[in-house]
Structure formats: C-alpha cells, structure tokens
Design brief:
The complex is a heterodimer.
Chain A (H helix, E strand, L loop, with lengths): L9 H18 L3 E7 H9 L10 E8 L1 H4 L2 H12 L3 E4 L13 H6 L3 E4 L3 H10 L5 E5 L6 H14 L4 E5 L4 H10 L7 E4 L1 H7 L5 H7 L3 E3 L4 H16 L5 E3 L11 H10 E8 L3 E10 L8 H4 L15 H4 L24 H4 L4 H8 L1 H12 L1
Parallel strand pairs in A: 1-2, 1-7, 3-4, 3-5, 5-6, 7-8, 8-9
Antiparallel strand pairs in A: 10-11
Chain B lengths: L6 E7 L2 E6 L2 E6 L11 E5 L2 E5 L2 H12 L11
Classes of the chains: A alpha/beta, B alpha+beta.
The structure holds iron/sulfur cluster (SF4).
Chain lengths: ~375, ~80
Amino acid sequence: MKYISEFRDHKLARKIALRISRIARSIDREIRLMEVCGTHALAILKFAIKELLPPNINLVSGPGCPVCVTPNQYIDKACIYMQRGFLVTTFGDMMRVPGSQSSLVREKSRGGKVKIVYSPVDALRIAKSYPQEKVIFLGIGFETTAPTVAASILMAEEDGIKNFMVLCGHKLIPPAMKTLVENKRVRIDGFLCPGHVSAIIGSEAYEFLARDYNVPCVVTGFEPLDILQGINLLVSQIYRKEAIVENEYTRIVTQKGNLKAKDLMERVFKVSDSYWRGMGVIKSSGLSINEDYSRYDAQLHYPVEITSFKEKKGCRCGEVLQGLIEPRECMLFGDPCNPSNPFGPCMVSVEGVCNIYYRFGSDHKVEKLNARSN
Amino acid sequence: MCLAIPSKLISKEGTKGEIEIGNIKREVNLTLLPEVRIGDYVLVHAGFAISKVDEKDVQELLKLLSMADIDLGCGKI
Ligand code: SF4
C-alpha cells in the first residue's frame, strides 16, 4: 500500500536501530521515552519495536487513548440518557466500557436506544432520519476528533436539525503532557508526540514543553521507520543535552497544523477544565460547547448530575495511563481482566494499553505458552 | 477511530468526497481540508479528511533514512 510499505523496510529499520543503540550506549543511563498516543503504543507492540532497542531505552505509554481517559461519570451520564429514552450515538469503542454500575451495552440489553457510528456526521444523519428522537452524540476524543464534531454541529445548524445534541467530553493533549512532566512520580526524558493530534494542532503546540520543561519532543508517524527515527531523534537530543521540538512526520504534520480545523473548534467550543481518569481535574484541558452553540449541548439542556461514581476495584488504568505501571503489573491483567471480560477501559479500547498488551505483548504470550506446557 | 493509512481521494463535490483504500470505497467529508484535490492522498479521521500527504516530504525522509549514516549532530559515535 502506498506510503505504508516504504516505511516498513527491514534493512533501514535495523540501521536506525543500530544507530540508536550506539547513541544510547554513550548516554549510559535509563532513558524513559513516552509515546503519548494509543496508536503509537499499538504500532510499537505490533511491530515489536522494543525488541530492537537497547536495554537502557524504556518506552512507556501515556494517556493518549480517548476512551480510556474518559472518566466513569461520563459513561454513567450516557447510561442515564439511555434510561431516559434518548437515542445515544457513539463510536464503537465506548459500548463496552464499564461505568460505575452499567455500560452502554448493558443499557441496550435493557431496551435502551444506542447506535454505533463511524463519524459524527452519521449521528447527524440519524437525527435527520428520526425527527421524533432526541439524538445525543457522545463527543469524546482529542484535538483530532473535536473539529469533526465542531463541523457536525455547524452542519446541524445549517440544516436546521434540532434534535441533535452532543455530550461534550473532548480533551486536549498538551495540558495533559504538562501535568505529566510536572508530576515527580512520572519521569519522562522525551515525548513521542501524537501524529494525528499534531496534524490539527501543529508541532508548535509542544514548544512550551521543550522550552519551559526541558523535555525533548518529536512528532512521529505510525510506521516502524517513523517510530524508530522518532526515537533516534529523541536520543540524539538527549545525547546533545538539548530540548527542542522536531517533526519527523512532515508528510502529514506542519508547524501550525490544520488552520481550518482549529478555526472550527474555536467557533464552537471553549476551553474548560476537564477530569481525566487517573489524573483528576486538569486545568484548561477540555472543551465544552460555547454559548453561541449551546442549543447543541446535551448537558445544558438535559442536565444530569452524577454525585458519586466508583471505579472497578483493583483496576489500575489510572496508573497505566500515566506510564507509572505496565499492564502486566496489574494483578487482574489477563485473568480475570481481558478483552472479552474487561474491567477497565484500557482493556476495552483497541487503543487501550492493556488491550494492546493483551493482544501483542510478547511477555503475555510467553506466559500463556508456559501455562500451557505446565 | 483513526485510520493511519493514507487513502486516495477519487472524487470530490463540494465538501463531499470519496476515498479508496485497497479496493474499498468510502465517503469522506472534506470540510476540514477544502483545498484537497482528486488524486491526493489524505488521512481520514472519523469520516473527515484531516491532512494531505506531502509527497515531497515522503521522498525527503526516505532519502535521509537511506543515507549511509544519518547525521543528527552527534558526531562519530
Ligand atoms: S489489566 Fe484490566 S484491571 Fe488491570 S489496569 Fe488494565 S484494564 Fe484495569
């Protein structure tokens, strides 16, 4: 496939890996690099990138799975809307995420109305086709998804669709990265910045991290050569004792990002504080619908207050999302928590680190093999 | 949610377009990328084209990576 196979060349991968090893050897200490994005985590495990790296480079996963950082209260609210007869539309990943008591899939089995959509535009279409229904779209996701939802709200306005609303839970990545570097428990020597979020916000959005926190940042694509070159650029910066923002993914990401998308986001949303699973409330890290478009704000028109919520006992998603532990350090990993019996969102979503480790983590597979031979 | 595979834009009418990945055709919304042209490769997220692949940058990166040694200012290590 075009623009894919070129970036999977074994020989080149080995060459870059060799160079990384040489630099890492002369740095001579543990180097912790965080891949912020779930799609990067997936590619790293799927292509066994870790096996190409020297032992002192440790890749840790971050909070870049939108479903995973969405707190239980949000899912609880969505369930209540279903109980009250609203037609909920959502990306498929949200269906099986356990909330405090229930999940969308459980509400569906109790007669609630829910439809999986691939795009917010599909949700809009559903609203148009079922004018008698009150349709709520679950707006979760980062800067990559938020403009698509903004565009859909503007389309709803243009087409005069009145039964379409959004439960806005969008989050912004740079403030979460800031919180992570300020957290003494999470030690990060460099960031592999999320490719597609960056396509919207541009590589310039990370400049404060390099300048104010002295953390090297590299925007990287998702193919093996991209990731290896991203790591190569990061360790080279560390070797040179430098912290700048570099862009490996120039074929997709520019310095300023997608101006049109940023403009639509600004028109429809305002920046607000937001609650992240495991990380708590992060200042100015979320988006809510602004006054001009408040008629599309589900929470404003049909307020639902969640006074108490609970996390599944023993689930350590909060720590996994901050790179504090690896999934296999969770006692529940694999048994009883696995993709068909998920305890936390990190095991549900295909971008969730636990799910990715369950499917591709070699240690886990080794464990399974051992179990079989016993 | 995110498709990391660039796909070819094969038709365009206003903000509506169609992309092709392998042999599959899919509708795509072009609101966020109005300047895109038929034949361009785009990255699609949640049904919207969000960025266009820059061919020149693809070639430059591949050239850089295939050079005998990638000089990143670290000198001879
Ligand atoms: S393995 Fe399961 S229980 Fe443990 S952190 Fe991951 S999702 Fe939560």
